[in-house]
Amino acid sequence: MIGGAKRCLSLPHQKSMHKLNRKLLTTLGLGWLGFCLVGSAIAVALPPTSITILIDRSFCPQDKWQAIASTYNDLYQQHQNRDLQIKEVIVFGDLGQEILSGVPSPDTIRSLNTYGRSNQERQKQLQNSYPQAKLLSCQTT
Which of 23, 69, 89, 132 has its CB surrounded by the most CB atoms within 10 Å? Predict the structure, then answer.
């Protein structure tokens, strides 16, 4: 009888613990749901900055070209981390311009050959066409 009395006494305690557990899980679940919704809203409302990169391919000494490649590498890493979106990469020089397909790797940029003279007119045209563009040039390093 003592054992039976113990069971009767503990039964209301188990029901209240069950209700507390259920409330705790509901609160945690709703909290995580709210957290996910707010995170998604921020991701949609504040997408990463989107840029075009203009690379002046005119003749450049090797040490300065490596500095340009290093700057591009930094931008590329930000793109990989989704802190920045590289829309396109345009290389230009005195013989013309080329929009590179996709987002080239830093090794691709590092291995580009530089030649000719800087074409300031083409540079200004590109900067006017792409006002948010980041210019990488030997003339500005």
Answer: 89
